Description:
It is built from three helices and no strands. The protein has helices at 2-25, 36-67, 74-96.
Amino acid sequence: MRKALAAISAALALAALLSANFLFAQQPPPEQCLTEDERERVRAIMIEALDDALHAQIKTLFGVWMKDEHGQPNRAAVGTRQAVYAYQQARKSAVNWKPLEC
C-alpha cells in the first residue's frame, strides 16, 4: 500500500512539474529594454541578415533553374517575387521595430 501511495505521489509530483514547465514554456520571455546604441546595432544585424537571406534565396532560385529548366523562367520569376515581397515586409518590420528603451 505504501509503495502504491509513493508511486502515485511521485506520479502526481512529476505531472505537476511537467504541467508547470509546459505552462511557463508557453509564455514568451519578457521584453528587455535596449539602449539607443544597442537598438540600432540589433536593427543593423537584422537588416544585414535579411539582405543575406534574400541573396541566398536568389542564388537558390538560379541554382534550381540551372538544374531543371521545366517551367523556367516563370518559376524563377514567381520565386523571386515571393522572396522580394517577404524581404520588403521583413525589412519594413525591422525598420519599424521599437523595443523598450532603457
